[in-house]
Design a protein that fits this description.
354 residues; alpha/beta; 3 domains
């Protein structure tokens, strides 16, 4: 196919393309030479990565840039920041020539001074002193972090004191009535510190203490139920009638954990209707279903000898054996001892009561 471009014009185009290619190679060689010189002078190499399929160069910060008054931005280590005006520049400005140009144009009064010779009060250079001052300046993040740590300490103390209150069985009002005044006396008279700022970070009102105890109780229950979901255990049940004619069902579990025999209170629930074996079984079944504890993990069950528990047809054990035919049923040893003790001779009975 014959070309439509005249021969003289085609030669001119080819000559221009050759010149452009030569100029591009010359610029690339100069750039490589400049990068090698920067590396020899202590400046870092340029990191190359790809953004959106295009090659982009990212310059890294060097400690030598501090002599131009620049540090890496605290928010982005790839961006330079002027120590004097605290202005952040793009990564393209991470060049000694551009940093020196900014120092000469914007901070000409600082440029005329030999910073390497002028020392601050602590013996460091001028820009080093500015950098240390900037590092020590409190930021919004650091102030919130410090406040958060203090609040966490007060919250932890509130939970610990609430736990001690629950273990001692004292009223929940003891926190405000006794514990906080006692802490105030110790701080004022022994440590000689103002107690107001510390006490206001420890909430110990009656409702707060009750809420803390309920939260810790639910957490302990969840941990125990999660363990019982994957481990075998023994169950002990006891039904009692309170003075207000309310029927209370207590459930205990005994299991092996870390090669130690452990016993914990699993639940305490009211029997809403009656104390028949079917009602007791429904209460236990509802708890096990709600906590996702499988019946098959029950190895044995201990109860007293009441008909509602051990009845052959309608007792709790009869309903349980329909779920677990091979479950081991044990008459509570302590209950049997109590039954035997009732028929002791008067002499042994007095000894038993001592």
């Amino acid at each position: 196919m014959k070309s439509l471009i005249p021969s003289d014009r085609a030669e001119e185009i080819n000559e221009n393309n050759a010149n452009d290619l030569k100029e591009h190679e010359t610029n690339e060689d100069n750039g490589n030479l400049k990068r090698e010189q920067d590396v020899e002078q202590g400046f870092p190499k340029i990191t190359e990565f790809y953004v959106g399929g295009h090659e982009k160069k990212c310059r890294q910060y060097s400690l030598d840039y501090l002599k131009f008054g620049f540090i890496a931005s605290p928010s982005n280590q790839h961006l330079p920041m002027c120590l004097i005006c605290e202005k952040v520049f793009s990564n393209d400005a991470m060049k000694p020539s551009k940093m020196d140009d900014h120092l000469s144009r914007v901070h000409a009064d600082k440029k005329s001074k030999p910073f390497h010779g002028i020392m601050a009060n602590n013996g460091s250079s001028f820009f080093q002193a500015l950098k240390e001052k900037l590092d020590k300046r409190p930021s919004i993040r650091s102030m919130f972090a410090s406040s958060s740590i203090k609040d966490d300490d007060g919250l932890r103390a509130s939970y610990n004191i609430s736990l001690l209150t629950a273990k001692s069985g004292k009223p929940h009002t003891i926190g405000e009535q006794l514990i906080l005044p006692a802490i105030s006396e110790v701080l004022n008279n022994i440590l000689h510190k103002p107690a107001h700022d510390i006490l206001k970070r420890i909430p110990l009102s009656k409702n707060t203490v009750q809420r803390r105890i309920d939260e810790m109780g639910r957490d302990v229950e969840n941990i125990l139920c999660k363990f019982l979901q994957t481990n075998r255990f023994s169950l002990q049940l006891d039904e009692s009638t309170l003075p207000g004619n309310e029927a209370l069902l207590l459930g205990y579990v005994r299991f092996i954990k870390d090669e130690n025999m452990c016993q914990e209170l699993l639940f305490a629930t009211y029997l809403e209707t009656d104390t028949r074996g079917e009602s007791i079984f429904q209460a236990v079944e509802h708890f096990f279903t709600d906590k996702a504890i499988p019946w098959k993990n029950i190895v044995s069950v201990a109860t007293d000898g009441a008909p509602s528990m051990v009845g052959r047809h309608r007792g709790f054990i009869a309903h349980l054996k329909r779920q677990l035919p091979d479950v081991l049923v044990i008459h509570c040893v302590i209950h049997r001892q109590h039954l035997v003790a009732k028929k002791l001779s008067p002499r042994l009975h007095n000894l038993y009561n001592m």
